From TrEMBL:
Keywords: Membrane, Transmembrane, Transmembrane helix
Bilayer-crossing regions: 113-133, 145-165
Organism of origin: mine drainage metagenome
UniProt name for this protein: Uncharacterized protein
Length: 185
């Protein structure tokens, strides 16, 4: 009587990047795009990679600072639990100051005030344009088309004002960065 063969399959995970999935089948993680890496890697692994690799940092945040600035930005992101997108918008809005050898939060209380005043002025202008369109003698379809164009432009400009002036302030307020920067400054 022949002896039964051991048919148990053992799978090994070697260095978390590859694994032996069966007898002679090796599986490797070879991403097809940087988006797949950004979507699947942990924040700790992405931070370690971005600190040492300026190209990875550029893909995450949209610019290439020096290594000391990258380290400071990653510490700010971790301290206040910002997302990569929030860091990008804070930089675009001027709330995150980037110098050749320094990165720090510089919140300005004037920014949301400027944003809301511009949004109010925009709303008044759009309301005036819609009123002028309604009082015109143009055919109804032209009035409707003009109102849609004015509303679309108004909402588009308001979205930009919100993203540049109002939302970064809310992000800083929610994260607690306003109170900590006020104590430091």
């Amino acid at each position: 009587m022949p002896e039964p063969k051991n048919t148990e399959i053992v799978q090994l995970n070697l260095a978390t990047e590859q694994r032996n999935a069966g007898r002679d089948y090796h599986e490797y993680f070879v991403p097809g795009s940087i988006k797949l890496v950004l979507a699947t890697w942990s924040k700790e692994k992405l931070d370690a990679q971005a600190l040492d690799n300026e190209v990875m940092f550029r893909y995450r945040f949209g610019f290439e600072p020096s290594k000391t600035v990258r380290q400071q930005l990653l510490e700010i992101r971790k301290q206040y639990d910002f997302t990569d997108r929030q860091i990008c918008w804070l930089r675009r809005s001027g709330q995150l100051f980037i110098a050749p050898h320094e990165a720090k939060l510089k919140p300005s209380r004037l920014m949301p005030l400027i944003g809301w005043s511009q949004a109010t002025l925009l709303g008044l202008m759009c309301a005036g344009m819609v009123l002028q369109i309604k009082l015109s003698t143009a055919p109804a379809w032209k009035q409707g088309l003009a109102e849609i164009v004015v509303a679309g432009l108004g909402f588009g400009v308001f979205w930009i004002l919100n993203a540049l002036y109002i939302e970064p302030w809310r992000t800083l307020k929610r994260s607690g960065a306003l109170s900590s920067t006020a104590r430091k400054g």
